[in-house]
Design brief:
Layout lengths: L16 E5 L22 H6 L4 E3 L8 E11 L9 E15 L4 H7 L7 E4 L14 E4 L13 E8 L8 E14 L15 E8 L7 E9 L3
Antiparallel strand pairs: 1-2, 1-7, 3-4, 4-9, 5-6, 7-8, 8-9, 8-10
Length: 224
């Protein structure tokens, strides 16, 4: 086989569409899946858009970053100046992005608030002018309680994949996180020279089978 410098078709460039579970984390089992199945000839973004299991967060900024942080312990011996052996003693996986659509639904996800914190109030008193207003979305900012269970949600993103996109085919890469928990500070701003957005970092936790999720490179065959 002749030497080749590389394959430009395996370079991935492009943003991913991000979806969040409507209520809680995804079911990772095959016996009772909560995510819809793939449909031949249809991008999974289109399939998810017709599902009530997830919600599209809309525009994002600076893409998606998935970070793996292994933790290794060391074994030192007298006869070596360096360590003789490394062993894995911990693992941490994080997913970071920024929600560019500053909706209350996205803020709910960013601050890991329960679903019942966001409600519609049709007779809420107007705190500025007095009287009542006809319609309002209200997000209650609660401190929580000691021993309260943190809110975990499933995350799913679909972006471009690698490979030779032949005529009639397209390739997409699907990122699935079963249990995602927002753990970093979230800033809500209103600035003259910058858009309001929510930068959020999710800590991914393993499911009962030890899996954080999966990454799937899918060939979408389309009719020509």
């Amino acid at each position: 086989m002749a030497y080749e410098r590389g394959n430009s078709k395996k370079i991935i460039v492009g943003a991913a569409a991000m979806f969040v579970s409507a209520c809680s984390e995804f079911d990772y089992t095959n016996t009772n899946p909560t995510l819809p199945d793939f449909t031949a000839g249809t991008s999974y973004k289109e399939t998810l858009s017709s599902s009530n299991v997830v919600r599209n967060v809309g525009y994002t900024m600076n893409g998606l970053e998935l970070q793996f942080q292994p933790d290794f312990g060391e074994v030192q011996v007298d006869q070596l100046l360096d360590v003789a052996k490394l062993y894995k003693q911990g693992m941490q996986v994080n997913l970071a992005t920024a929600f560019a659509e500053a909706t209350l639904e996205n803020l709910l996800v960013a601050i890991a608030a329960p679903v019942n914190s966001l409600a519609n109030d049709t007779k809420m008193d107007n705190p500025i002018e007095g009287g009542t207003i006809n319609y309002a979305d209200v997000l209650e900012l609660k401190s929580g309680e000691i021993g309260e269970c943190p809110v975990e949600r499933g995350l799913l993103a679909i972006g471009p994949g690698t490979g030779d996109c032949a005529a009639g085919n397209s390739i997409e890469r699907i990122y699935v996180a079963y249990r995602a928990l927002s753990i970093e500070n979230v800033t809500v701003s209103a600035k003259r020279d910058a858009p309001s957005m929510f930068e959020v970092s999710f800590r991914l936790l393993p499911a009962n089978n030890g899996s954080y999720g999966k990454i799937v490179d899918r060939l979408v065959a389309t009719s020509t």
